[in-house]
Write a structure and sequence with these properties.
This protein has 452 residues and is an alpha/beta fold. It starts with a strand and ends with a helix.
Length: 452
């Protein structure tokens, strides 16, 4: 019995990653100016990773003595034809490309498990005669799957009804992803500030997010609002394995909010320090979960780079999407502390929120320049199908192609802005920030990493 995990993408001129935005994926289209196009090219060469669940499924099946391959190339017809079952990843940024493949003759002759949150949200689009929509977290489905051929075929003729919970209850039950297998075929990159000197291994310590921004955020759709944790020892064991097997000490934590539980974060950092693991890692978190003592401990454990969501400098704009934040003075103090500890900070902002206008966005750009952060990301507010906020915007959607929902386009009718305005503001913001003298050192380090 042979399985093939097929992870396909459209041909775009910017970086595409399905693992981000809660499994919907993002495509970094920074704008259409010469400067923005240069940033598009740079980032496309700098960041690359698959959806983590694809590698978890690969390890689950491999550990069950099943033949399983991972592939991105839909033109690898031999590998596709030899597979008894295909497991296809789904995302909003590749939706039309995925549907086009499902409608090809070669796909119509295959039994295809549709996996990922977007396939669950848009069931009607993916449900074909030869497909089965894998419910919830696909790792849980494949952990519990009866691999008898008759049982498997039953999913495609309507005989099988899944009785499986949507989520993995105990994250320690998951096998470690086999990144050594993946690295034989594809790169793993996150090379801001020299991160490309070694492979940067994706890893997670927790899943789930309870914050109020679930109103527009897709992570709770993918992982639920209840936070689940791996044991610190289990995380450290995976780190050790990758240090030994893949000869790297660089890790990218994919937790939606890494330090959401202070005690757990302290325990994990202390376990890393106790084991004397000389690692460097990246996290994404909320500034409200950081304090001076925790920052110092994270630094000691190996924190190199932190992403923090700020979204807007205007509290009324944030209130319009139910985004909780801390006041601007506190943001400044925490970011300053991180930078003084030698930790690089990437602050993330969101243009085109419902109450935004050109003035509020330009003030947000100015605010991003006033902070001590060395990196920024300006993305675009996107009402995603499946989120609570989508119902209020469903009749205002002006973009017909889901692959344009890449978090860098204005996809709905805004009361103050057109997509052309957003593009100009992206061009303006990225050029103003990254050509600013105080950020030149960071920019030069980033670009020099391409030469290593």
């Amino acid at each position: 019995m042979k399985f093939l995990i097929l992870d396909i993408y459209p041909n775009d001129d910017w970086r595409l990653v399905k693992d981000t935005a809660g499994g919907y994926g993002t495509g970094n289209d920074f704008g259409n100016s010469i400067f923005s196009k240069a940033v598009n090219f740079f980032v496309s060469k700098m960041i690359s990773m698959p959806p983590m669940y694809a590698l978890y499924i690969h390890s689950i099946l491999k550990n069950r003595n099943v033949s399983v391959e991972y592939e991105r190339n839909i033109n690898n017809k031999k590998l596709i034809e030899e597979a008894d079952y295909i497991i296809m990843t789904t995302s909003i940024i590749s939706h039309e490309t995925e549907i086009n493949f499902l409608n090809t003759n070669i796909a119509k002759n295959k039994k295809i498990f549709i996996s990922g949150i977007f396939g669950n949200v848009l069931k009607d689009k993916y449900k074909l005669k030869n497909t089965f929509i894998v419910p919830g977290e696909p790792e849980n489905f494949f952990l519990n799957l009866n691999l008898d051929k008759n049982e498997l075929d039953g999913f495609f003729n309507g005989d099988q009804k899944t009785q499986i919970n949507n989520y993995v209850d105990n994250l320690d039950d998951l096998p470690f992803p086999d990144w050594s297998y993946y690295l034989k075929k594809y790169p793993l990159k996150n090379n801001f500030l020299g991160y490309n000197k070694k492979n940067a291994i994706p890893i997670l310590a927790s899943r789930g997010c309870p914050y109020s921004c679930f109103n527009y955020c897709t992570y709770p759709l993918q992982q639920g609002r209840k936070v689940r944790y791996r044991s610190p020892k289990n995380v450290v064991d995976e780190i050790k394995l990758n240090i030994e097997k893949n000869r790297t000490n660089k890790f990218v934590f994919r937790d939606p909010v890494f330090s959401i539980n202070r005690k757990y974060t302290v325990d994990l950092c202390e376990e890393i320090i106790k084991e004397e693991l000389k690692i460097e890692f990246l996290i994404e978190t909320h500034l409200k979960n950081l304090d001076d003592d925790l920052i110092a401990l994270l630094k000691k454990a190996g924190l190199k780079l932190v992403y923090v969501g700020i979204e807007s400098s205007n509290p009324d704009v944030l209130k319009g999407v139910k985004r909780f934040t801390i006041d601007n003075d506190e943001q400044y103090k925490l970011i300053k502390n991180l930078v003084e500890q030698g930790i690089v900070v990437k602050s993330m902002f969101m243009f085109g929120q419902p109450d935004d206008n050109e003035e509020t966005i330009k003030r947000t750009i100015d605010y991003s320049l006033s902070l001590p952060n060395q990196l920024v990301q300006y993305s675009v507010f996107t009402p995603y199908p499946g989120t609570p906020i989508y119902k209020a915007y469903e009749d205002k959607i002006i973009e017909k192609k889901y692959e344009k929902f890449n978090q860098y386009n204005l996809v709905y009718q805004h009361k103050n802005l057109e997509n052309s305005d957003i593009i100009k503001l992206k061009n303006y913001g990225y050029q103003k920030f990254y050509s600013n003298f105080k950020n030149l050192t960071t920019v030069l380090k980033s670009f020099s990493s391409l030469l290593r």
